[in-house]
Amino acid sequence: MSQDFVRQLPGSGLVNQRKVGIGHAVHLDVPMLLLLLIISAYGLLILYSAVGQQIEPVISQSIKILVGFSAMVVIAQISPIVYMRLAPWIFLVGLITLALIYFFGIEVKGSRRWLRIPGVITFQPSEIMKLMLPLILAWYFQDRHLPPKTRHVFWSLVIIAIPVLLIAFQPDLGTSLIIAASGLFVLLLAGVSWRLVFSAIGLGVVTAPALWFVLRDYQRQRILTLLDPERDPLGAGWNIIQSKTAIGSGGLFGKGLFEGTQSNLDFLPESQTDFIIAVLGEELGLAGVVVLLILYLLLIGRGVILSVQAQDTFGRLLSGSITFTFFVYVFVNIGMVSGILPVVGVPLPFVSFGGTSILTLFAGFGILMSVHTHRRITL
Amino acid sequence: MVEPLALKDHTWESRIFFERIVVGFAVLVILTLFLVARFFYLQIVQYDVYATLSDKNRIQVQPVPPIRGLIYDRNGELLADNSPSFNLTITPERSPDLEQTLEHLGSILSLTDEDIAGFRNRVKRRQRPFESVPLLFKLTTEEIAQFSVDRHALPGVEVEAKLVRHYPRGELMVHAVGSVRRINESDARRLDPVAYSGTDHVGKIGVEKFYEEDLLGSVGYQQVEIDARGKVMKILESNLPSRGKDLVLHVDSSLQAAASAALGDRRGTVVAIEPKTGGILALVSKPGYDPNLFVTGIDHKTYAALRDSKDVPLFNRALQGQYEPGSTLKPIIGLAGLVTGMTNPDYTIEDPGWFKLPKSSRLYRDWNWRASGAGGHGKVNLEKAIYRSCNIYFYGLAVKMGIDRLDDYLALFGFGVNTALDLPEARSGLLPTREWKEETRGLPWYPGDTVNIGIGQGDMLVTPLQLATAVTVIANRGKWVSPRMLKSGSDLIDRSTVPRLDSIDLIPDPVWDLVIGAMEKVVHRGNQVYGENGTAWAYIGQDIEYRMAGKSGTAQGVGIKQGEEYDAEELDERQRKHAWFVAFAPVDNPTIALAVLVENGGGGSEFASPVARAVLDHYLLNNTGETGRVVATAGEEL
């Protein structure tokens, strides 16, 4: 094969020198699988405490995990070539559904995020876009010379901007930021010059204050609350004050599993969903949080290894972007609950109660496994 | 997959990707460490701060109000107890929109503007945040059910059961026991906020007021764990309150009921005292009102009706009503006259029915004066002057004694000063003196003023309690006892700051015998020729089973102008004279002394003495109670 030299590359060479395990035969990556299972189990335990030791939500969440897990297995069986070929069409469908939201979207609490195909399914198109955008960008760069030329960077930015803006105006700032990040990660990994990267970051920092005028009232409110939660302790500041109190009062080893007073006595809002890390921090303390962070890092690390081992540009960019995007979830969620980022609706992956994000997350890791296990070079 | 384009430099791509992803992973590890640092800061560095905040969130120190002491009558009957009352309360902090909550409540329960205004006031007076504030009191079961249906939509609203004061005898005992009222703004400023935390009521009147600190008990505390909605999840620590002291009063509720029944629908008062102790056996003032109305907050209309009633039911006539004593004063003036030597048992006057001061044309009339000159009592000595209630004798005696000496002796019997140990509303009446007249009217004391005092009229004012006390002193032959309500715990009563008078020891026994004997004749001297019977004999003395000493009196309700003949028929009922009767019995060993006043009743003997008789009968004859007092003595007598 003409690509034999790939194996000699320093990066991939390091990790490719091993035997194919059972995993490859069924198109799964065993270490990643194990990490996902451990994190999910840990997540279920925290959830069980967060819902006040009721079993029903835990069962419901387990079913969602099972569905997500199955989706992951199915997705992993399909060759990445299929995804690559379908990429433009899937992306187009994704954009259309996003556009349709503006006409047929279901409005919940002042924003339109959901689309219902009567009798078939109700879903969140923006959720699917989290995978579609890296997919289309990876497809876009697959055949192009890297590092990307300026005009390719420009067009890819356009590709990023369309879904991001569509989602931002639903409005769903949290999701649009994650999607933007997933797209930009592709660009970063594709090798845009550091100069461009830092210029963009610099430009972002300089123009950030201007963003203030674009933000809606409730969004401004959240930033003000971040800066000073005490300005409205019983109102806007309540969530963040209570979550910081829950975390801080946990100390090194926590108050004990199921013993968190902040969560059990309902002082902690959203304790099963976005603020669940506060339950962990309160009941299992710094130790429990660090364990979770280590598990996340191991999962991400495995994702990095799989990305590096990918054999082509498409697989590398897609895997790398999905892996880094996963970290964005983790960082934004924990950052907001611990009071260093404004409150945006981002769940804690595999721990927060709720189905949609779990499905997307497992699907993402399914793509990673697909890329990893469908190799043209058998080792 | 197709052949890679020749343009693509795979080596470069892979290396740059590797470099990028490693840098990216490094950044992500740094960011993760940053998160760890953040948690380290919150959980280790700031641990104390947040642990305290968390405890403050969940642990609340709640006052546990003590149970108010019970009040019993002398026979152990409950006069004041505590019964549960269901109140609707709101914790403003836990109610997301107070106005909407009130509106919602208004739609399911009957809420008046007054309720809401009162509620807002109480919210302002709160001592602590997260303290629930009552909105409605005494919810009925229907109201509770109605609220329960909508409860889920009304966060912060609760039904709280609280023990509140309850007066089982209601109106009957109100003026004897007094009552508690809801703590208002001015109370709140005066009362110790710690001692009253969790307590909504304070003794405002009567015994409830005087023994407030004993009845109240002391507040306890409990540390409770609450959830975010303020619901108590568990009690962590508690320091129990100590109950208020129970009180036993001298009052006898069956006697009280008998007195009340004897007065019937008439306005008036009965004060009965146990001579040995000064304990008040009955303290009736009619009309009264139901004190239970006030405990949980009375509605404005009912209150206005009570306040504005011409019969002034809120007014305690027995303690606050100040009336002329009228002829009931005569025995005391007689005693004073004998002791001072200004008269003696044999001194006799010829009563023409009128009295004139030297060098004055003004006529002071006797009660049986006739313009024709046919009135008067004929030959009158002190004894007859008492049992016939002859004014002329006492006009002369008073003038002879002079106001200063009269004042000295009247003061010995407690006039002009409040001596009620534990009845905070009691007034001191008025014992007019030269100084008093000079001060208040800028006029010198005239001999005519003294003439009026001689028959208990003019400026002198007494409360029914004072008169009952004076009669008690006569029954005791001079031994002073301060009137009191409390029977148990004499140490409590020692706190009272009212003056305690000395016993009168300069009156020799024969003097007492004569005066008391004359008072006995008021009731028992009968079957004589016209004008020789005791004034009360015809009304109460004919079938009496025990020996009673009494004296009637008549006090002017409104001023009767000089020279006008008093005509009950022509006067509006409310302008008629007040009828007095004072008495004690059995004469040789008195166990009860009393004063009866029937407002606008007319003549004392005719209208007040039957009330006195009914009360004494009940006490001495019907009562087979614990002391078994009397029937035996009375029986021996007969």
List keywords for this structure.
heterodimer; A: 379 residues; mainly alpha; 3-stranded antiparallel β-sheet; 3 strands; B: 638 residues; alpha+beta; Penicillin-binding protein 2a (Domain 2); Beta-lactamase; 2 domains; 5-stranded mixed β-sheet; 5-stranded antiparallel β-sheet; 24 helices; disordered N terminus; disordered C terminus
Unreliably modeled segments of chain A = 1-17
User: What is the helix tally of chain A?
Assistant: 15
Per CATH, the superfamily of the largest domain in chain B is: DD-peptidase/beta-lactamase superfamily
Oligomer: heterodimer
Strand-residue proportion of chain A: under 5%
Low-confidence blocks of residues of chain B: 1-6, 558-565, 624-638
Strand order of the largest sheet of chain A: 1-2-3
Number of domains of chain A: 1
> Which class best fits the helix and strand makeup of chain B?
alpha+beta
Helix share bin of chain A: 55-70%
Please give the radius of gyration of chain A in angstroms.
Answer: 21 Å
Largest sheet of chain B: 5 strands, mixed
CATH class of the largest domain in chain B: Alpha Beta
Strand content of chain B: 15-25%
Alpha-beta content class of chain A: mainly alpha
Number of strands of chain B: 19
